Known about the structure:
The chain is 55% helix and 9% strand. The chain is of the alpha/beta class and 657 residues long. It folds into 4 domains: 9-128, no CATH class; 150-267, no CATH class; 304-398 and 450-482, Vaccinia Virus protein VP39 (Rossmann fold); 497-651, no CATH class. Helix 1 runs antiparallel to helix 2, helix 2 crosses helix 3 (70-95) and helix 16 (399-409) runs antiparallel to helix 17 (415-428).
Amino acid sequence: xxxxxxxxxxxxxxxxxxxxxxxxxxxxxxxxxxxxxxxxxxxxxxxxxxxxxxxxxxxxxxxxxxxxxxxxxxxxxxxxxxxxxxxxxxxxxxxxxxxxxxxxxxxxxxxxxxxxxxxxxxxxxxxxxxxxxxxxxxxxxxxxxxxxxxxxxxxxxxxxxxxxxxxxxxxxxxxxxxxxxxxxxxxxxxxxxxxxxxxxxxxxxxxxxxxxxxxxxxxxxxxxxxxxxxxxxxxxxxxxxxxxxxxxxxxxxxxxxxxxxxxxxxxxxxxxxxxxxxxxxxxxxxxxxxxxxxxxxxxxxxxxxxxxxxxxxxxxxxxxxxxxxxxxxxxxxxxxxxxxxxxxxxxxxxxxxxxxxxxxxxxxxxxxxxxxxxxxxxxxxxxxxxxxxxxxxxxxxxxxxxxxxxxxxxxxxxxxxxxxxxxxxxxxxxxxxxxxxxxxxxxxxxxxxxxxxxxxxxxxxxxxxxxxxxxxxxxxxxxxxxxxxxxxxxxxxxxxxxxxxxxxxxxxxxxxxxxxxxxxxxxxxxxxxxxxxxxxxxxxxxxxxxxxxxxxxxxxxxxxxxxxxxxxxxxxxxxxxxxxxxxxxxxxxxxxxxxxxxxxxxxxxxxxxxxxxxxxxxxxxxxxxxxxxxxxxxxxxxxxxxxxxxxxxxxxxxxxx
Length: 657
């Protein structure tokens, strides 16, 4: 069996940085006969470092998935080198730094490309056969024919011409061009045609939404600016006005954005509705008929006690067949009648209060809870409205579904930027003290992003047990049942510090303090997550979606447990001892271990790191051995276990997971 070769992205970045330095200093030696840099070229080297870093991150140069084939790697190296050359040229041209050697700059870029290609070729030949089948498979798709918009092409060409002459009038007070600027106009025409062609700027297939429509314009403009900068620097065309050239480009992208927006809204997506054209249609709309005024009480009663399943499928949820299937598979709709059902599409607490004081067994709200200002109040009102055992069907936009929707909405190279902006604005701001008041004052709580764990945890906190959940149509739909009274806990986890109730010695509850590593309200989901995922090696819950990325980092380094030192100072914990557990987790232990746990004070450092058990049964045996030893010789047991854990953690590198 061939051993799988793995190269970390960090190693690739370090090696590529090494190649960049070789290229730069080699060109300096070739030009000046020394490796020593003059002060001005030290600044150039720093510029290379910064641009190399940003270009590498932008092109995902060190993502292993970028190397699907040999040709993909060569294209990636070439693209990143061109971007570096463009960026350096732009800086030189805009700042007027004509003293830099063209051979030094372009030679460094070319030599870097040569070294990268050579080293990758060697690695490809030596370890290329270890790639997975997925990496070997090329995505060969038959391209559709371009749907060229003649209107956009001709309009854009006229814009380029018009803006060029306007800039000429602004600079020289005349529309007539000098011979040199006539050549410049022809050069800009060539750049415009070249960049428009390779970015599919006028292809109507790009018009999924306004962002996809404008994205090729932005790409084409970046290419035009970069290529023009490179040509100016390479051929010393600095006698041309930079304001003239780049001012024309800037105005072009601004006017193009407006043009494409108007075309998208009023041209491409205009829906023409069919008008009423015949006399028969007029009669159908205008004809009035007498209605019977007698009320059939029995008919009304029969409709009210009719099972809701048929009307849900054929009427209320007809536009959402996937949602009906989800509800029908999770609940016995044949046993729920229409009179016991309420369906709404609102994020206002007021509309829940409007439901008459009659038994509700099924409440469906099609509106996402992200727009509800007070989510707990809303869930509590739902809980109060439902009869015992009643069901609530709701919808939420979670972090995962939000990211999927944004990545589908925005084109490549823009979606990461938009997602980061949205995450900061609608995820972080609502949780920051002081700033969150401004957020809610402006947005009224609409559109904020909530994690899946927080949604489900809030349901449990409010007395609603989750019986089903599913991601559909870029939203998380859930079904929760009224199964208990709301929690009386006054301090659910929300801020950076959390306080958890645990079982201490003699079975008395204690409160342990930690830095929060899970999404808010996650503590109410322990039983739910355990029932779904069970335990993995080491005794932790398998695929625990409650843990955040930062929380996982902190757990591996025990940073989250630093506040527990306060429990140790208070005397609630000893240095070495079994972990303080929740009531639910403790119930998983055998009766004899539970009884022994009552006799011993919990500790900061668990015996787990002395034995390193993998399964839950092994953890129980490990704790039984520790407890028995501690009850016989407490001081010796503490001393022995401390040094065992110290050896495993420091020497063997054992970590929490």
